Amino acid sequence: MTTDTLAPRPPLGCAAVMLGLFRAALQEHHLPVTHQREAISRVLFESGQRLSADEVVERLRGDGERAGKATVYRTLSLLVRVGLATEHDFDEGFKRYEAKVGRAQQDHLICTACGDVVRFQRDELNRLQTEVAGQFGFHVLRRQLKLYGLCARCDVESGQAIRQVSQGVR
Prior knowledge:
The protein is α+β, with helices and mostly antiparallel strands and about 170 residues long.
């Protein structure tokens, strides 16, 4: 399960703008604009969440749409290639995708116990990135920072379990 710090839905009209950009990218690459590609991208653009391919398929079915998993994977990969989505691997055994809106940086806290993922942003990291990149004459295109550990709830639960084991209580 993932926890988003994003708004429950993108700003009004954002999904329509993203869909227009996707149509333009398809035409630019001489690829057909199909109903399935539009439906898949709309699910991602309207969700405001990081979705797996299986979750996209479920949402499509809920909307009365049909698309095979292979088509969903190909469309999600295409969205990543044209820069309208980002792909995330949180060591869950599958990838998650989200619409790429705003700055090209992805910083996450990932709970290794329950799988919750929280996206965060800190100005100090942005300043450090600028300083380090400048020092080496490097142009940063994107950043992805993943911090693995225990969320507050799992930390408390694991601490209680450790205390119980050390006290001989089970």
